[in-house]
């Protein structure tokens, strides 16, 4: 009976759902204990392994100033953090190490320093002019009245031997009559005959003309003025009916088969120019065509106002395509013998701070992009490159593209950089904490003088970036020159402005940290003068003096 009751009770317990729940709960707790107990041992071993080695630091490929002790997202750009190769970074404490991904994204390129031929490109600006040796005035050989002008306007083309005008000369009529009378007695009085003939010869009558007068026995009343050269009439100085004396200028002629190109060379360009140098130039009116010539003369005197010296090039113009007063741009490739076989580096590789010129040199012996700043001495600039005077050796590898990106990374990491040669810890910002940084998170303490920029650092970072540029400004006279230069100098940061009244070019020297070309051209346009980018207001232009009106 008791056995039956016990079995019934056991069945109730086994089929009770609460009993089943209890068994599941106990089993789950046991399994969990086994899992976490084993995991704890593994974690204990992992922590021990970390303590034996270095802690992995995680950084951002685009923002290397980010330092974290665990993986995650960059607080600036949101990219996944990557582990920092500390073994490579320990090569030099002042070197800046970029990951290969960061260098590729920043388009950082390097090249090997090598010796090259030193050829400097000197760019000159000027305009075409008539050859002064081919200018000539056609004068009256004898006094009289202009009976008829056969060449009536300026710009007309004439040929050598062409009749320009007809003159009636009473003195020449009298001299002809004397010749005819003397010819009757030339056998008995040859001296008188020769004297009358010589008188006509002094008035530039040819022997054939004199013989024709003598043979015809008639006095000519009109005589021709014949051109002595072929060319273009640049000025007509007389009208029909005018009385002229012997030697009076009737026309000014110029032969345009040969022209001069007069370039302006600044003082800094003159040491690289010499007579005989080849120059290639283009004319603004005919783009796509290149002309060549040789420098035949360099003005030995520098203009005290424009500070330029004229460089003359002779060019053949038998085709007649080139016209005087056309603007030209020339390039001289000057071979610099004193810098032969010197090292030459691209201009993009140099960071220039006024007194200091620096480059970033790739550390040898590693394939990783590790760079260190180095100050170098520069020689003359060769167009898009520099001659290296000292500081580099042949075979070294330097950054030639993306130099600013490397310098920015160095500044953010507190390494020596362009504006901070001695280096120093960068101030931390939210989300940019460094491992082991003893300062509180967030912005640095203003009271902590060690985090504040020194006067020396601020002075270096505020050094001006001086640039020289040239552009065209419309104008006419000295009043325009004074107004244009005054307007340019009124812009903050402009240290010098010189406008040439002949070429209409202005050369400005300015601090690129304070202003730019657009601001300078706007100031000049507000003063009433058109520039390459901006046109002066019509009302302002009309208010200028009459001599300053340059618009046609």
Topology:
Elements lengths: L1 H13 L2 H36 L5 E2 L22 E2 L2 H4 L6 E2 L2 H6 L3 E4 L1 E3 L2 E12 L4 E5 L4 E6 L7 E2 L4 E6 L1 H15 L5 H13 L4 H10 L5 E5 L4 E6 L6 E2 L4 E6 L3 E9 L11 E6 L6 E9 L9 E9 L10 E9 L6 E5 L4 E2 L4 E6 L7 E13 L2 E6 L6 E5 L1 H10 L42 H7 L4 E7 L5 H12 L4 E6 L5 E7 L5 H10 L11 H5 L10
Antiparallel strand pairs: 1-2, 3-23, 4-25, 5-20, 6-15, 6-19, 7-14, 8-10, 8-13, 9-12, 10-11, 12-14, 15-18, 16-17, 16-19, 17-18, 20-24, 21-22, 22-23, 23-24, 26-28, 27-28
Helix pairs in contact: 5-6, 10-11
Describe this structure in words.
- By secondary structure, this protein is an alpha+beta fold.
- It has five domains: 16-52; 96-118 and 339-461, conserved putative lor/sdh protein from methanococcus maripaludis s2 fold, CATH 2.40.420.20; 134-254, RNA polymerase II/Efflux pump adaptor protein, barrel-sandwich hybrid domain (OB fold (Dihydrolipoamide Acetyltransferase, E2P), Beta Barrel), CATH 2.40.50; 258-335, Elongation Factor Tu (Ef-tu), domain 3 (Beta Barrel); 466-548, 2-Layer Sandwich (Alpha-Beta Plaits), CATH 3.30.70.
- It is 26% helix and 29% strand.
- The chain has twelve helices and 28 strands.
- It has helices at residues 2-14, 17-52, 86-89, 100-105, 170-184, 190-202, 207-216, 403-412, 455-461, 478-489, 517-526, 538-542; strands at residues 58-59, 82-83, 96-97, 109-112, 114-116, 119-130, 135-139, 144-149, 157-158, 163-168, 222-226, 231-236, 243-244, 249-254, 258-266, 278-283, 290-298, 308-316, 327-335, 342-346, 351-352, 357-362, 370-382, 385-390, 397-401, 466-472, 494-499, 505-511.
- The strands form seven sheets. Strands 3, 5, 20, 21, 22, 23 and 24 form a seven-stranded antiparallel beta sheet that branches.
- Helix 5 packs antiparallel against helix 6 (190-202).
- The longest helix has 36 residues, at 17-52.
- The radius of gyration is 45 Å and the shape is elongated.
